[in-house]
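QA checklist item 7 of 12: single-chain prediction sanity check.
[x] sequence parsed
[x] length recorded as 98
[x] structure emitted
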Amino acid sequence: MIKKFKAKWNIQSDWQLLIILVVFSITGSAAMIVRKLVFSLIGITPDTTIWIKVPLYILILFPAYQVLLIIIGSLLGQFQFFYAFQKKSLRFLNHKRA
């Protein structure tokens, strides 16, 4: 499985793969903290209807995750990997439909 990740992501070392996986882990946790903070600031509680929470969840979490991924990846020396990863992952937003 490690070989598949390294080949798919064009990673040379196990150490780099470990750092990348750590970045994904930290970023997911940090994005959830940001979401909780924003929900608290705008007054979203557990009692708030799901029809309000879910769209806000997406609107907050998606951009927070993208920004945090670049920041945390850069801090751990993997800016080039995560910049390329995001460009590839977000390509669908720029896709023109006929």
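[x] summary fact logged: Helices lie at 2-8, 14-42, 50-75, 79-89.
[ ] second reviewer sign-off
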